[in-house]
Each structure stands twice: as structure tokens, then as C-alpha cells.
Specification:
The protein is an alpha/beta fold and 331 residues long. Helices cover 38% and strands 20% of the residues. The chain is built from 14 helices and 10 strands. The protein has helices at 10-31, 53-68, 82-91, 101-110, 112-115, 158-169, 188-191, 208-214, 226-232, 253-256, 278-290, 292-296, 307-310, 320-328, and strands spanning 41-46, 72-77, 96-100, 118-133, 149-151, 179-181, 198-203, 220-221, 243-247, 261-273. Strands 1, 2, 3, 4, 5, 6, 7, 8, 9 and 10 form a 10-stranded mixed beta sheet that branches. Strand 1 (41-46), helix 2 (53-68) and strand 2 (72-77) form a beta-alpha-beta unit. Helix 2 packs across helix 11 and helix 11 crosses helix 14 (320-328).
């Protein structure tokens, strides 16, 4: 018998095997519920514009859901953004979506009966307001946008809500004091300096449409400082979801040159309807949480999805299926 590997007693061997079985069981329970057949069927997921984070996140989530629920078909439906997404889920055109918290509450205030059907699944990550201008522009603050050609986002986007509120807080009437246009992230960035003077965007960091532009084209960001954010908070309901922050220097390093950019952020929510099957919602919630690192390797902002904060889906109450999942993993 080798002296390097001494004999292990039968009892110790059995104890070790038992521990291994328990650990394996816990791991499997975390990944997939034991004894359950995965949900099947077809669901619609409303995303966003082609080069935006909603669309990219939806594509990655679709891949992860296929691993856990191979008989579930997820159909991705592009949209103009948060406002369109909330409407689609509320009226049954989509089953799940992502939307910014301010857009959700804005819809609730104007459509209380329909909004009562909405439920939260998880808080995901924050959108950062990104106001893009050409490198040689004479625009240095939001107030300098007066008289300029400014893209304020697609009509049913969350960007449109934010851009109009930021402009008004700076003393600019979005309809009279600028020449507004409605480009999305798929077309707007390329027009900066070539048809428009400034482009509003609100999205996770980095947003693909701006990241790829930064590889070949110089541009700058206009700061949105804390004083202006405080003024935005006086714009009325739903603005309390905005928080003053800084865009980290690592977001677009070739553009920012090691400098942060003062701006504001708002949280994004994965949401569904109250009548959605609780078991299906529980499975989807589990996949969202456990696939954070896998999706985050491609969608950087998804790395911020966290079990401790995912339950905070205000202004929406949690869906019962999501609540079941969070209770099951509560320490």
C-alpha cells in the first residue's frame, strides 16, 4: 500500500460520498428544479432597437432560456423602447419585456387600470443618459442646445421621456427652442455632425451602437451635472427614479480619455403581467439570475444583475412566480 495515499476508512469514505451527493444536489437545485419538466410553449419578448442593449440582452437571454427550457420558444419583437414595451405587455401584445422604471410609472399614472396588470420579475441594470456631440462642437452644456438640431429619441422610447425632461429642466422647450428629430441608437450616432448637432441616448454601458462608433469616430459627451438632475426632479411624477451619477471612464475609453462624465441614471426592470403562469415566470427568473455571468461576458451592463437587488422592482409589485424563486434562494 502506498504511503502517499493512505487507506481511507469505510465510514469516512461513505461520509465523503454523502457530502458530495448533498453538494451536487444543492448545485442542481440552484440550476434547475428537481423533479420538474421544463415549461414549454411560445412567449413574446419585446426588446428595443437593433443596436441597443435591450435587443442584445434579449438575444443572449433567449440562448440561455433555450438551455434550461428547450421546448419553450421565445420570440423577440423589436420596439422603439421603454414606453412601447410597457404598452405592449399591458395590452397583451408581448409577454415579457425590459423597461426603465420612470417609463413604467409614467404609464401607470396615465393608464392606472391597465397598469394594474403589470408585475415585476427582476431589477436588471441601470441606463445612463448619454448626450453625444461632435468633438469640435461649441456645445458644452445642455443649455447650449438652444437653437440646435437635436435627436431626442424615438416617439415611444424611454429616451424621449428623459430628453424632454432634461431639456425643460435646462430651460429649453423641446418643441420650440430646438429642431427635434427622432433617431434611434441604430441610426442616430452616425448623424452626429452630419445632420444633427446632438444625440440623446439612455442605455446600459457600453451601448453597442456607441461602442462601435467610438472605434472609428471621435465624439464627446455633454455633462449632465447634479444641479441639473435636481431640477429634473421638479419636472413631476416619475422623475424620482433618476439619480445623479458619473459615467465611468471605462465605458468608452477611446472617447473619454480617462475622464468620468457627470450624468444621471435610471434602473431597468424585467417585467410581465399578473396573469402570466407562475411556474414559467419562476423558471425565467432563475435563468435570468444564474446566467448573469454568461450574458455579462457579452452585455457588460448585465454583470450588474444581482440577487440582492433584483427583488426591488418598484414601481411594480413582484410577480408571484418571481417571488417564489426569490423565497426559495433566500439564505
Amino acid at each position: 500500500m502506498s504511503k502517499v495515499f493512505p487507506r481511507i476508512g469505510r465510514r469516512r469514505a461513505l461520509q465523503g460520498a454523502a457530502v458530495g451527493v448533498v453538494v451536487l444536489g444543492l448545485l442542481l437545485w440552484w440550476l434547475l428544479p428537481l423533479g420538474e419538466d421544463p415549461p414549454s410553449g411560445t412567449i413574446k419578448f419585446s426588446t428595443g432597437s437593433e443596436a441597443g442593449v435591450y435587443q442584445e440582452y434579449g438575444e443572449r437571454l433567449k440562448t440561455e432560456l433555450a438551455k434550461d427550457m428547450p421546448d419553450l420558444k421565445l420570440k423577440l419583437v423589436p420596439s422603439e423602447g421603454s414606453q412601447a414595451n410597457v404598452k405592449r405587455v399591458a395590452n397583451g401584445e408581448a409577454d415579457f419585456t425590459i423597461a426603465a422604471a420612470d417609463a413604467v410609472e409614467t404609464y401607470e399614472l396615465s393608464h392606472p387600470a391597465a397598469a394594474d396588470r403589470l408585475r415585476g420579475v427582476a431589477r436588471l441594470y441601470d441606463d445612463y443618459v448619454q448626450l453625444v456631440i461632435p468633438p469640435g462642437s461649441d456645445i458644452h452644456s445642455v443649455s447650449d442646445l438652444r437653437g440646435k438640431r437635436v435627436s431626442i429619441g424615438l416617439r415611444d422610447s424611454g429616451v424621449r421621456l428623459i430628453a424632454e425632461r432634461v431639456l425643460r429642466a435646462a430651460g429649453i422647450d423641446p418643441e420650440k427652442d430646438i429642431t427635434p428629430s427622432s433617431e434611434g441608437i441604430d441610426t442616430g450616432p452616425k448623424l452626429v455632425g452630419h445632420g444633427i448637432d446632438a444625440f440623446f441616448w439612455s442605455g446600459g454601458l457600453p451601448t453597442e451602437g456607441l461602442r462601435t462608433l467610438a472605434e472609428t469616430t471621435a465624439f464627446r459627451f455633454v455633462p449632465i451635472d447634479a444641479d441639473l438632475v435636481a431640477k429634473v426632479h421638479t419636472e413631476g411624477a416619475a422623475t424620482h427614479y433618476y439619480r445623479a451619477t458619473n459615467m465611468p471612464e471605462s465605458a468608452y475609453p477611446t472617447v473619454q480619455n480617462g475622464e468620468t462624465v457627470p450624468t444621471m441614471a435610471v434602473s431597468n426592470l424585467l417585467m410581465t403581467r399578473k396573469d402570466m403562469d407562475p411556474r414559467l415566470t419562476e423558471w425565467i427568473t432563475r435563468t435570468v439570475i444564474k446566467s448573469r455571468d454568461g450574458i455579462g461576458a457579452h452585455v457588460h451592463s448585465a454583470q450588474l444583475v444581482d440577487l440582492r437587488t433584483a427583488i426591488y422592482t418598484a414601481p411594480l409589485p413582484l410577480h408571484e412566480g418571481a417571488r417564489r424563486y426569490y423565497r426559495s434562494v433566500k439564505p
